[in-house]
Amino acid sequence: MSNEDQYGGGVGSGYGEVGGTGQTRTRLPDAPSDPYGTPRRAPRASRGLVTVVGVVVLLIAAIAFANQSGDTPTTPSADTPPAPASTQATGTRPVDGKNGAIPNGFAHDEQGAQSAAANYAVALGSDGMFDGVRRRAIVQAVYVPDVAAARQSDLDRVYTDEQFLARIGLDAGGKAPKGLMFISRTNPVGTKVEKFAGDTATVSVWHSTLFGLAGEGSKNPVAESWYTNTFELRWIDGDWRVADFTQKDGPAPVGRDQRASSAEEMAAAVSQFGGLTYAR
């Protein structure tokens, strides 16, 4: 399967086809040269790639303004595109089980597949992937067993590479320097079922990511990026699991003219506002 580049930067320079898998390529965010300037993205084509199966992602609410009276209903025409599938609550009871810290027991239907994909994107984009024990638990909980077994060593090799960790500001153990907070958070905005065939499903998850070091003196300030991950899911042992995925950039909204928060404000917000763990 052809896989897109993942994440927003070139910290993976030097990594080729890890383990010879030839599967998902992963890019982690760059460290901007100016910690107080507005992060700008360089052209994607020149950036290095890290080959791993993993997902490194703040949910920003989009505000739409309309000045329509609404007195006269609009009649759909043949040119009107189909309405997107709603992601509002359906009334179906959410899952109440967990495999470690990750929800499980998703419904064996399209809604369940969307929920699984969104939750797995959150887990795979978390800072837990930089901790050996948590990384192994995430991989075992998210992936199809034979895929997890085949990729675990590749993931361990990438996430423990000292040059890679140093480039994003972490020590050899994946820890942030004293006084700084490492942030890696994925926030799904919406999901879409591309294909559904009973025991297999293809689900796209549109999400934003926060990645960087928050705190006074950080040389890798927290930056935001937008991606769409498409997960290939299989129904196995009574739950949805990831068999493979691809990622592409965007859609990315136009940035608003807002004052960037201070390092202290960003660190406080991330520590005080917990990430969401369930979608749909």
Q: Can you put this structure into words, describing what you see?
A:
With 280 residues, the chain is of the alpha+beta class. The chain has one domain: Nuclear Transport Factor 2, Chain: A. The protein is 20% helix and 24% strand. The chain has five helices and eight strands; from the N terminus they run ββββααααββββα. Strands 5-6-7-8 form a four-stranded antiparallel β-sheet. A hairpin with an 8-residue loop joins strand 6 and strand 7. The longest helix is centred in the middle third of the chain and has 15 residues, at 110-124.
Concise summary:
This protein has helices at residues 110-124, 132-142, 145-159, 162-167, 263-272, and strands at residues 25-26, 50-51, 97-99, 102-104, 181-196, 200-214, 223-236, 239-249. It has 280 residues and is α+β, with helices and mostly antiparallel strands. The protein has one domain (18-58, 93-272): Nuclear Transport Factor 2, Chain: A (Roll), CATH 3.10.450.50.
